[in-house]
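User: I'm curious whether this sequence folds into something compact or stays loose and floppy. Could you predict its structure so I can see for myself?
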Amino acid sequence: MPGQFVLGGAPCRGAPRLVWVVVELAWFDPASWEDWLVERRPVIPDGMPFLVDDDLRFEDAPGVRRPTTAVNQWLRELPSSGSPAPLTWAAYARVLRDWMAFLRSCGVGLFDGRAALRGGLSSYAVHRSAGPLQARFEASTWNQHVSVLASFYRWAIAEQFTDAEPFTYRQAVTMYADQVQHRQVNLATRRTPKPHVSIKYLERDFADMLIRGLGGRDPQGFDDPGFRGRELTRNAAMGTLALETGLRLREFSYLLVYEIPLLPSAPTDLPIAFPVATALTKGRKFRTTWISYDALAMVHRYIALDRAAHTADSAWPETGVALRLTQADGRGGRVDGVRVRWDTLSPAERRRLVAPDGGSALLAVQYAPTAGRSPRGPACCGVADAETLIRAAQVACSYSWRSPPSRSFRRMCKSVMVAGSVIGSGSGRSGRAFAIARWGLCAL
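Assistant: Here's the prediction. I'll summarize afterward.
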């Protein structure tokens, strides 16, 4: 995945009319390392990204290393520096790749003097704010890139790769209650709106209509014989779960059926605690969200009826090595004979879990009859990925909007179609499904 910059109006003064600068981004794969003529396996995490110049060289001469080696060393130390997620490694590598490619197009090195780096940073800021449309960043994205670059240069100065960085800081004072703290503020960052200003709300009447649409019902709540869709009970239950708990996309997609809280013996108006596994949360921080009794009851009905019928005598459809699950309960189970807790299982391992009765152990699954067999025979019951639920929700949206309430129709169109969520759009790996309801509204 190369990073390229074409200067055709010159973000850098004096640059040629057309300059191609390429920095390659690749990922480490230890397969067949025995054929690399090395004494032992390289101590590099599997899937770790690294940068290399387009001539595929790391040295200009024996012992004269290029700046890409310093960047790669910083990337390799990320897991021990508070960044254990592979997606974070890739994001940081892309930030450094684009920064290096742009500096080179300006004739500036990664570890040049402060004056040269300051000039490159100014040109880069203009390029990302007023340059070509495909190169422009939102303020939040630009601030994230600045934060990553500042972290890298602080590390490079500490490791004596350089003694200069392009950023300037000012002292700021923050106060909370009776606590006063001093901190540094990077002057290269842009101002962003307060979080509560950028929230998009899905009002309660539209949220209820959306859930009815997911379940194949008309706006009044009755079954619509003209509706065409599959897995209606699952879609309605999962849509309600996402609305009530505010789970992120990855947390929602890899939720195990055993992690659903038990249903209280009697209905209650109090919210029910819903723990979220550490391995799925952003930053691997444990948290507890909440769900109402009615929403939890709907999920349990889906588990007891539709999901049970679809997973009965089903086969495991995934490729790769299966992880056999036995003696499962609300806290953990035996995986290939070893007792483990649910919050220690990564998303990839959760996809490979095979329930004791066969099929996937994930909560949201989809039924697909095996090729060449009758629908009543053995079937594959696999993961209902986010894209499947997204398509179902988009159909439900267009259906439920046949006769929507007159107020806030335009706002709902914008919120649902723009939000990176299960009911909207998303990559299936990150982003928020639905935020927790506030003041009688559901925030996307």
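Summary: The two ends are 32 Å apart (CA to CA). The first strand starts at residue 3 and ends at 6.
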